[in-house]
Amino acid sequence: MRVHFIGICGISMKALAELSFHLGHKVSGSDITNTRIINYLKSVGIDAYIGLNTKKLIDVDCVVFSSSINEKNEELQYAKAHNILCLERSDYLNEISKLCNTTIVVSGSHGKSTTTNIIAQCLEKYNYGLIGHVGADIINRQSNLIFTGFDYFVSEGCEYKKNILKLHPDYAVILNIDFDHPDTYSSLQEVESTFIDFSHNVKKALIVHEDILDKFNHYKNVISFGKNPLNDYSYQILKRTKERTIMQIEKKGIIKNIVSIDSVIESNCLNYLASYALLEQIVDQNLINENLFKGINGIKRRCEKVGKYLGVDVIVDYAHHPKEIENIYSNLSNFYSNILVVFEAHTYSRTIKLFDEFKEVFLNIKNVVFLPTFASREEIQKDIVITLAKECNKKYISSYYDCIKFIEKNVQNYDLILILGAGNAYKISKQIFMDKMG
Length: 438
What we know:
Blueprint: E1 2-6, H1 11-22, E2 26-31, H2 35-44, E3 47-50, E4 62-65, H3 74-81, E5 85-88, H4 89-97, E6 102-107, H5 112-125, E7 130-133, E8 145-147, E9 152-156, E10 171-174, H6 188-199, E11 205-209, E12 222-226, E13 233-240, E14 245-251, E15 254-261, H7 266-282, E16 304-309, E17 312-317, H8 322-332, E18 339-346, H9 348-353, H10 355-363, E19 367-374, H11 384-391, E20 395-396, H12 400-410, E21 416-420, H13 427-435
Parallel strand pairs: 1-2, 1-4, 2-3, 4-5, 6-9, 6-10, 7-9, 10-11, 11-12, 12-13, 17-21, 18-19, 18-21, 19-20
Antiparallel strand pairs: 7-8, 13-14, 14-15, 16-17
Helix pairs in contact: 5-7, 8-10, 12-13
């Protein structure tokens, strides 16, 4: 079969294209930019290119497109006009899941990619066959696809545009629920309803965080996790350093294991705990021990320490929601006393809808530089971030270049440069290291 991907450089689309190639399909794909991913996909054997070319769609059997693709896209219009099967990314993802014996979906407003990666790498480590579809680049790996067989399909399920409702897993994890994606949802209650609707698709067991447990009383097999020892699975932090956390995992109040995780962020303890709870349902119990998480590579831009600049640590993180920002800043403040936060908002609609929440968070952070909003799928408009910076009495810098110059000039005033956002602000770290490593 010939499969063509429109928006092939998206992190999920990249993995699906690569998987399709390994399954024996002839694969092509287009995107508007991202030479690095295009070159990688070409090296794999995929006909990937920048721009649009309807000639590439001749004899294509199926076109897969991401939800960010405009209906006026020339290739998508051509495919529909020529009666080529067109599947939105989440529909194709669902079809792929049917290749495996057991499907696992990790969901929630935050932590999906991290938890999916943990589960997938644990299954891989113990030689289970799986398709692991991780929604972020994995550190020390070229691909965010883990493909070793067809026992398990492990993927995150995204609530954006209610795409998660297209998935029908055997097991699911719901890590948390917050209001987000205001271009899809009008209220927190609507977000909650989507996750509740999703729970009806889950066939065997639902693993749910304690804070949202009451939303899923209708489900017959709910496994709870959280800090409270009354949960099915709980944890205690025994020791935390700048590099790792030692945590004790308990099952119904009884100590099960003491494990080490390569993270200093406490919310990551919950991601590992949810992974532990899920894995205990499906793998050989002899494998559930203190070495379960040993050797797991993290994912990029999730509290990723990318180096030192003139002796000052530089960390990049994907945080773009007020709760995520507050979480990473408060955790890192345990180890750093003078943090410079560089923040790039992701979409105008999110900042407008959550303006008060962003303001509350940034008023409590001493040193902040705001960058222009990363518009993503939205049309360029008057930037609300300028107003946010003024009301927080913080600095606004209008370009990456000027931000780099500001960091170079003032770096010695801080002990950590923390670059936050889901757009391209992480590239600032790459540029300052090109100028001078310390």
